[in-house]
Design brief:
mainly alpha, 2 domains, 6% strand, 171 residues, two-stranded antiparallel ribbon, Arc Repressor Mutant, subunit A
Length: 171
Amino acid sequence: MTGAEVSGTDRGDAVDDIQREWRRIRPDLDLEAIGVVGRVLRSAALIVHRSDEVLAAHGLTRGEFDILAVLRRSATPRSPGELRTISLATAPSTTKRLKQLEGRGLVSRSMNPADGRGALISLTAAGRDLVDEVFPLQLSAENSLLAGLKGDERAALARSLTMLLASIERS
């Protein structure tokens, strides 16, 4: 099924155009992956852009919000290493984000009693309040992006993406 069939238009979408152009110059290649990967990447870019607008309106970057959200979901303080692993960030970027968040009073740092050297990061009341304010707005923005899909279509897409992600993570 092409984007044109899904959207009900004759033109389709940009990914259809890309596939058509490649098919014209390289008809010998299997271009099916472009249909899936191209749409996943384009959708992700648009979703991230919209989400980043919501976060920026509240003075946050995606990386900062990811750290705050991890801490909000966590019942206990986390080490910088745990935050880095969960948010898939590099050590320097995690350190920078933590310093910025601490400077803004959104997280606090304490000594790790388990080893006496490492730190544990906790969400402050201000950090919790900010996450509780921003997260519903972010969800609303994401839901508006999915408004063109019916509930059963969303569920089917989520299942398909779950299978895709699991397959990629295994490979």
